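Contributing new records

If you add data, match the layout below exactly. Sequence lines come first and carry their own label; structure lines follow with theirs. Keep one chain per record. Anything else will be rejected by the validation script.
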Amino acid sequence: QVQLVESGGGSVQAGGSLRLSCTVVSGSSISTTTMGWHRQAPGKQRELVASITGSGITNYADSVKGRFTISRDHAKRLVYLQMDSLKPEDTAVYYCNTRGGYSAWGQGTQVTVSS
């Protein structure tokens, strides 16, 4: 099974930026797998915010469209999430997984946006 490790979270003020990284540390190749970034805010269900196919086609939740950019590096087995113009409502733990959440969930990385 694929093991994924997220990094890059932190605390920023509204309007700031962060870049999250997802590293595939073990398991089979994900080069043809549609990967996604998910997030879970306190008291809320986990939601998919962005996804990217093996060929680079991206999709975004309406709440982050125009502010977040998902990308991937096949050679390095990395998936990124560039987050710009951050808002307090983006505060959550962010997780990398397949689009459908079928791999084991990692610990995620905390993103906190203050107003």
